[in-house]
Every structure is written in structure tokens, then in C-alpha cells.
Amino acid sequence: MAYRYSLGLNEKYQFGTEIEFKHVPLIELYEMYSQRHLPVDFIKTHKMLTPSPTYDRWILDIDATVTDLIDSKHVGGELSSKIMQDYTRNWIELQKICQVLREADARINECCSNHITVNLSAVGNINRFFEYLTRIIVVYETEIETFYQGEYPRVRETRWEYARDMASRLSKIVRSIDFSSPTFMGELIHDHNCFMFRDAISLYKFPGQHLMEFRYPNGTINEEVIQNNINFTMKLVDAIANGKFDLSTLDGQIDKFDVSSWMRVQANPYKWGELIEIISQSIGDKAAFDEQFQRVRKR
């Protein structure tokens, strides 16, 4: 799986990522970034407790799930990317960010994650987008979760608290929601408790910002895996936005499932093959997606 400096994404798409890590004192990591003149700001509290950042630079801050206070130093934390588009300079920057993390001996454990945020302003018909996305989660969530494990099979310790599975809940309501209604999103979130802050896909930043956060991915400081996670996420979003999925086919697959289908642990390689055939835009996409999936599945 080679690192790429262009993913073939439409320039209209904006996205970002969060890299959680352990073991490194944040002030020392910040000094390393400063010495290399990388665009990283250090916020000494959690960024959510500060005035809204503009995200024109990376943000280094503490995170309750990974930061420890050791000898009066905050050790472990989170790097939130600037707003990114598919430009070479952004991929070079991500590569350098990860290289410094490895030089600093940053480590990943079962508490760490690699969230991906997508700006949905460019998808067009948002009602139609969620009509399809909800069904895709029901049909393919196990395969998607397997892919997002990244480098090796690992169930994140905080997954049930911060990245809850959604297929089982959505399967019970997906046919009853009127996605043409202007209130469909409120119904999903408030009436059915889906796409909440602690779900594997969260819409807590959607009001006013049109942001959707994918919280499935496990932590990693490997830029190839982070880029592959971003590419998979964006190609899925683009495939939905451009009508590459068939609604009747998705509904037919939902009809064939029984309750145990959503509780299965093992991903289905045939279903995975279906999914990446639909969303991939190049041979390179398909190969990279499948390499990561198979690496996790076979270990």
C-alpha cells in the first residue's frame, strides 16, 4: 500500500482527521513540530473548551481518553488536522506530522482512534444522501468496521462508549423514516438516538457546519493507513452523492438478513468486494482498500 500525493478527489470536498496517541509529553512534541516549522498550534486544554479554532493549522491538545498527567506534564493527546482538500501539499504535511510522531516515540493503544470529519456541503441532496447511507450501514457495517481497524485486528477499548455500532438500531427504523421530510434528521437523532455524539458516525457538528464525523477507525500514526482511511471515507461519500448505489438492491439485501446478521463478528469478503467495486475510482483505490481489509481479516 503506497503513500499517494493525489487521490483523485473532487476539489469541492473538504475533510479533516484526528490522530490520538500515547506516551509523548505534549510540550516536547510541540517543540519538535516548531523546530521543523510545521503548522501546529498547541492548546493546553481541550480544543472544545477554547474559542472555535479556524482549522487553518493543525491543533495539538489533550484528550480525556488518551492524556495522562505525569510529573506535571500532559502525556499523550490528539492532533487535529487543518481543513484539508486533495492537494499534494496537504499529503506531504500529513506525512511529516506522522514522521515526527514516530521520531518522538508516540505509541498507539486500544484507547486511540483516528476520527475523520467530512464537510457534507458539497454532496447536493442531503436527504437522499442519508436515505442511502443509513441502508449502507445496515448492509455493510461489519465490513466497514473491519477495514477501519487499520493495521491489525483490535477492538478499541472505548469503542462501545465513543463509537457505537449503528446497524442494529438503523435496521429497525430505516424503512419507516420519510427521508423527503425536512425533519428527517431530527427524527433520526432525537427520536431514534442514531448518529449521536457517541455513535460510530456522528452528526453532532452538523447543525450550522454540515460536518459528519466517522469515529470507526482505530488509532494509527502510519500515514499510509490514515490516508487510506480518509480515501475510503471520501470515496464512499462521493459514491453516494453521485448515485452509484441502487436503493432497491440495498433494500433487498436488508430483507435477506436476520437478527444475527448484525451481530456477526466475521466480515464477509464477498460483501466487501461488492462495496469496494462500487466506491473505488481507480485500480489503486481498490487495491489499497482491499489490502488493508485483508490484512486485518487474516491476522
Describe what you observe in this structure.
The longest helix has 23 residues, at 126-148. It is globular and about 55 Å long. α9 (269-279) runs antiparallel to α10. The protein has 2 domains: 15-107, no CATH class; 118-298, no CATH class. It is built from 10 helices and 8 strands. Strands 1, 2, 3, 4, 5, 6, 7 and 8 form an 8-stranded mixed beta sheet that branches. The two termini are 17 Å apart. By secondary structure, it is α+β, with helices and mostly antiparallel strands. The chain has helices at residues 26-35, 88-103, 126-148, 159-162, 167-171, 184-191, 223-241, 247-256, 269-279, 283-298, and strands at residues 15-25, 40-42, 58-61, 68-70, 73-80, 116-119, 201-202, 211-214.
Keywords:
single chain; 299 residues; alpha+beta; 2 domains
Largest sheet: 8 strands, mixed
Given the structure, what is the number of helices? 10
List SSEs in N-to-C order.
EHEEEEHEHHHHEEHHHH
Count of structural domains: 2
Contiguous uncertain segments of 5+ residues:
none
Number of extended strands: 8
Helix content: 40-55%
Measured distance between first and last alpha carbons: 17 Å
Shape: globular
Question: Kindly state the mean pLDDT as a whole number?
Answer: 89
